[in-house]
Amino acid sequence: MRSVIVAAVVALAPTLTAPAARAAAPPDIPLAGVKAHLSQLQSIATANGGNRAHGRPGYLASADYVRSRLDAAGYTTTLQSFTYNGATGYNVIADWPGGDPDDVLMVGAHLDSVTAGPGINDNGSGSAAILETALEVSRQALQPTKHLRFAWWGAEELGLRGSQFYVSNLPAADRTRIKGYLNFDMVGSPNAGYFVYDGDNSDGTGAGPGPAGSAQIERTIQDYFTSIGVATRGTDFDGRSDYGPFIAVGIPAGGTFTGAEGVKTAAQATLWGGTSGQAFDVCYHRACDTTANINDTALDRNADAIAYAVWTLGTAVPPVTVYSETFETATGWTVNPAGTDTATLGLWERGDPEATASSGAKQLGTTVSGTNDLVTGRLAGSAAGDHDVDGGVTSIQSPPITLPSAGPLNLSLSWYLAHGSNSSSADYLRIRVVGSSTATVLNQAGAATNRNGAWATATANLDAFAGQTVRILIDAADASGASLVEAGVDDVKITR
Length: 496
Fold this sequence. Notes:
Layout: E1 6-7, H1 31-47, H2 57-72, E2 76-84, E3 87-95, E4 100-110, H3 120-139, E5 146-153, H4 161-168, H5 172-177, E6 178-184, E7 195-197, H6 214-227, E8 233-235, H7 244-248, E9 253-257, H8 266-272, H9 296-314, E10 321-325, E11 334-335, E12 348-351, E13 373-376, E14 393-397, E15 401-402, E16 410-419, E17 428-434, E18 438-445, E19 456-461, E20 469-477, E21 485-495
Helix pairs in contact: 1-2, 1-3, 3-9, 6-9
């Protein structure tokens, strides 16, 4: 696990928050149980040359320890072997009986250390926390609605080799059955921060959002920390831990991280305590990453967050799709429904968008799913501003959508707004739900700074519209004069 980019969580816009699905009450994971596993991993490293690295005897002994505990708890386990750098590596895969086999929730952590040390925080902490969570599933004889699968990955420190091998060798049908992956890599850093992977790209930094469903995972984990009064900050999906192979094939992901060699800022020390100007883990990838290199409070909180996510997501009643629109076919969306649009170029249309760039990506040539999306003038032209929104407002409206009379009803969609530094707050992307009343789901204004296109996710609770027939109305505006404005929307869904 290497350092990741972290940033403060910034609100997307004034959105309505969807309530959590019904789920069984999550347990309090005993810290003593997690630390007992860490002691075992330390003893294994001490007895095997001081580490638990890929291809070394300490790694196989670690895998055997984890597997033996799971076998005794009633899991069906597999020791999956692979070869890297001329050495055999192993993934431990453990399936809990029951749950929907077509709706799999995976929970993973890498089990290997670097050769320099025993790797107790990196990543004995994540491995021990998910192991104790898996054992608690057994102790409670949990009957989840999803099928639960836990995984301990080999050779992560050499480039995600174990998780990549697992994902690459899954048959396509099995890959589509995995509906979410939770990753926990370094969750007991001594100078801890509380970072949650930014599934919806609300931070607007680095990589874009995770695959659809990642935002729900992020919110679920944030809900736990909110419940105990601990603030979190986002961390980017930069592909440097074992979620990488999963998001690369479209599997939603999330998880927590307490920091590696990155230095804690004064603002972060004010927020969480600890020492500013010092690394989150001063023993990162060093021999001193022992059982003495663990923050018990951070480890305890993160273990409970893991259990909260597993219980909340794993036992939630699956939502029923009321309405879904991927824009792959024409379904009756209407441009300029009120006949009042003023834009002369860049009108909303459904199509396969062409990429444009001006001081960075503006119109995105990629969609969230499939080939088409809703986009403001899908062509690129010879210059970035040839088919952007010009001259005012362009709007598009969905066909009528009849909502059930009972909720909870939740809307989700993906969006982006891009503009140049010649924009202002008069430019915008706005999304509303219109029934007997109107609710604004998103109102993203422009600014006199460059904003590159990046897919983000918005959600809203629609319980106030239960039993009504509604329409989704989307507006984009270039109202700042000759400013460069591009926007897109994809994967609109309403669930119950």
